[in-house]
Amino acid sequence: MENNYDIKFVVCTLANPGFPTFYPIDAESIMGYFVSKAFVVSEETKYDRKGQEYKVYDVVLPYGDLRGEMSFPEFNKYGNLINGTRIYEVYDSRKEAEDERDKQNLELRNQKILCAYEKYAGTNMRRKKIEEASSTFDYYLNECEEYEMALSSLTSNLNISKLTKWH
Fold first, then answer.
1. CA-to-CA distance for 87 and 56, rounded, in angstroms?
2. Which domain holds residue 73?
């Protein structure tokens, strides 16, 4: 199938039990963040209450799971995207996306450790639970890295492109 969509890098969430998403159900289900290429279906300029401009993008991940075939944007009979999502950031370079991924993973690690710290405050289990939270996060982060490497291999033939001006 011919692909005429722009392709960019995006940062996604890997949620338990190991499926990619942009909006996990809850913070506890987040395993970590990874970088993927995505089809950019649309770009829209919006304005907040203060009049500040920001962009939103409708995107589709080429692979929802690693076992299936490549996914392309699909639309219902009204022209609405049915297999994508709306996000606020796309990246021209893998390095930019990886920097954001690393920032989000560090924030997530700190949240998980802080949660264990607060939950077991005043108990002799605090240190053990913090170490368990850190170890569990490292395991999940490894899962994210493996997922990202597999996606990178599967999407190696998709070239990053400049966003097309829609008329």
1. 6
2. 6-154
